[in-house]
Design a protein that fits this description.
alpha/beta; Rossmann fold; Methane Monooxygenase Hydroxylase, Chain G, domain 1; binds adenosine-5'-diphosphate; 52% helix; 6-stranded parallel beta sheet; binds magnesium ion; 3-stranded antiparallel beta sheet
Length: 430
């Protein structure tokens, strides 16, 4: 590969990585930045395609170009939707927000208002059925959030809906996904805040932002849901390592939670938080959750369901025994470990195309790799076949087993025991 071609690919990869990194955020996502990066990488891919001679790579680049084009379309639609979406009423200033402040106060306030607007989740179609297993957690969340919204008359007198739930468990078990799914199940406003963003990008402004966020939520009609992800980055136990900045955010959050206990508008906000390390949380904070629900690693049945979920758009025909075998081999894997392993397996037949020498020609004129034993097999290199007529072979159980060998579990037994310990003392199984 020529040097300038190499730099085209490198820059395209960097742009794509930046897009992905931005997209992985659970709040305050800069969609314009994602779109700009996506478009730039698409330009570079097209330039690379113009210089490429190998039909295999040309085919891949064309696919990539089409896929980037459709992703850019989705982002553009989302930007339009946000621009034309509900206007956010001004958030009234708290006691320490100067009234009629100078330009910089105004612009900071404006920035906070738009940060709050950014935390409001626009429903993206993900719902409870896209979250595998976790039936008890779903049931608790239904009772806490959905039932009081749909049947407010059931929650009168001393039957009060829960106001705060903490989801905890190993990383990659579906806590954020579950929270996201709730937004689709309710019609009221759902705010999604990532604590790490709050801490890193809002130095000095975060307490005001929290105060205004809660204020904004109470001013909505109906009962709003505030979801704070990775709460441990704010609400750690007091320690000398704790910075002044995080201490102030934590104090403000506790104050807002207490406020919700003492005002008449107690039922206006439901607070949902998630963490991968609950033992790091300040006990004052931990105590304020009426329920602490353990989101565990997927069990055998859930692992199969997860593999099936991630292969639902691909041709994968395994027997129930084969799925069981894979489930046995992925004991201790988290949901995201399973997702990565499955993607790895799906990719193997595509990688094999390059080395295949024998092809089976279908009635529809498509070429699929074969072992060459059949007399009708076509002998050819991939480069000599029409790129758009190439179909990879089906994914087999052997591909999964190969992928399992390179995708190991990420949660150790030791971490797992820590969660069990915590659940015995503070939690309940979800
Ligand atoms: N129960 C589940 N159902 C469906 N997908 C899951 C589940 N658990 C994990 N995943 C997969 O793992 C990824 C990470 O899940 P996430 O909700 O971000 O984990 P957490 O917040 O617990 O760290 C998801 O995008 C999804 O692909
Ligand atoms: Mg998460």
């Amino acid at each position: 590969m020529e040097t300038d071609e190499h730099s085209l690919y490198t820059e395209a990869a960097v742009c794509l990585e930046q897009t992905l990194r931005e997209g992985e955020k659970t709040a305050n996502v800069d969609i314009q930045l994602m779109l700009a990066n996506l478009q730039r990488s698409d330009q570079l891919i097209q330039q690379a395609c113009d210089r490429e001679h190998d039909p295999f790579y040309i085919n891949l680049l064309v696919h990539l170009h089409n896929s980037l084009g459709s992703h850019a379309g989705v982002l553009e639609a989302k930007i339009n939707q946000l621009n034309n979406g509900p206007s956010i009423p001004p958030v009234s200033g708290g006691r320490d927000t100067p009234q009629g402040g100078n330009f910089s106060d105004d612009s900071q306030k404006h920035a906070r208002e738009s940060a709050i607007a950014d935390t409001i989740v626009i429903k993206d179609g993900l719902n409870f059925s896209d979250v595998v297993g976790l039936d008890e957690a779903k049931q608790s969340l239904r009772e806490a959030i959905i039932m009081p919204l749909h049947f407010p008359h059931l929650f009168t007198g001393s039957v009060k809906p829960w106001k705060r739930i903490l989801l905890y468990g190993p990383p990659g078990t579906g806590k954020s996904r579950l929270a996201q799914a709730i937004s689709a199940e309710i019609s009221s406003t759902f705010y999604c805040v990532s604590s790490s963003d709050l801490v890193s990008s809002w130095v000095g402004e975060s307490e005001k932002l929290i105060k205004e966020l809660f204020h904004h939520a109470t001013s909505q009609s109906g009962r709003s849901v505030i979801f704070i992800d990775e709460i441990d980055s704010i609400c750690r136990q007091r320690s000398s390592r704790e910075g002044e900045h995080t201490r102030r955010i934590k104090t403000e959050l506790l104050r807002q939670m207490e406020g919700a206990d003492n005002t008449e508008e107690t039922d206006k906000i439901f607070l949902l938080c998630a963490t991968n390390c609950p033992w790091e949380l300040d006990t004052a904070f931990l105590r304020r959750f009426q329920k602490r629900i353990y989101i565990p690693l997927p069990d055998s049945e859930a692992r199969i369901e997860l593999m099936k979920l991630h292969t639902k758009n691909n041709k994968v025909n395994l027997t129930e025994q084969e799925w069981m075998l894979l489930s046995d081999k992925t004991r201790g894997y988290s949901g995201s470990d399973i997702a990565n392993m499955t993607l790895g397996a799906l990719f193997i037949p595509i990688r094999d195309l390059k080395s295949s020498k024998h092809w089976e020609l279908s009635a529809a004129g498509q070429y699929t790799p074969c072992d060459g034993k059949s007399p009708s097999a076509v002998v050819a290199d991939l480069d000599n076949l029409p790129p758009d007529k190439i179909i990879p072979r089906e994914v087999t159980v052997a591909d999964f087993i190969k992928s399992i060998q390179t995708h190991r579990k990420t949660v150790t037994q030791q971490e797992h025991s820590k969660f069990d310990d915590f659940t015995t003392h503070f939690g309940e199984k979800g």
